[in-house]
Amino acid sequence: QVQLVESGGGLVQAGGSLRLSCAASGSIFSIRAMGWYRQAPGKQRELVATITTIGTTNYADSVKARFTISRDNAKNTVYLQMNSLKPEDTAVYYCNAETHWGANSWGQGTQVTVSS
User: Fold this and answer.
1) Which of 36, 52, 64, 85 registers the highest number of CB atoms within 10 A of its CB?
2) Are 96 and 2 in contact (CB under 8 A)?
């Protein structure tokens, strides 16, 4: 089992920045990739960005060039640096960890609100 704890959400004005953190514990050795997903009110959860254990990254088109995902393996922590935030980025952001055999773990979610 992998446990995930997120932090760093909040309220920011459009054009501002936030950094989310996600600390993993438990069966760290089983993790193949970690990432961030988000869910806005009335919408389905969507992928934001992922990063594998070897550093391969993937981004949703809507956040490319604005968001950066990174990881600190020594701290078992993944970060999401969000710049040039837009009101449409408002959502609950969830950290995800996928194991080598396809199991998924989720964090509790952190609210990001971008005011116009």
Assistant:
1) 36
2) no
Rg (CA), the chain: 13
Residues 62-110 pLDDT 10s: 999 999 999 998 999 999 999 999 999 999 999 999 999 999 999 999 9
**CA of 112: how far to CAs of 11, 31, 32, 52, 64, in Å?**
6, 26, 26, 24, 18
What is the C-alpha to C-alpha distance for residues 89 and 75, in angstroms, rounded to an integer?
Answer: 27
**What is the pLDDT of the chain when averaged over all its residues?**
96
What are the start-end ranges of the E strands in 1-116?
2-7, 10-13, 18-26, 31-39, 46-52, 57-59, 67-72, 77-82, 91-99, 104-106, 110-115
Residue 13's pLDDT band, with cuts at 50, 70 and 90, is: very high
Cβ-contact 107, 78 below 8 angstroms = no
**d(Cα 57, Cα 77) in Å, to the nearest integer?**
15
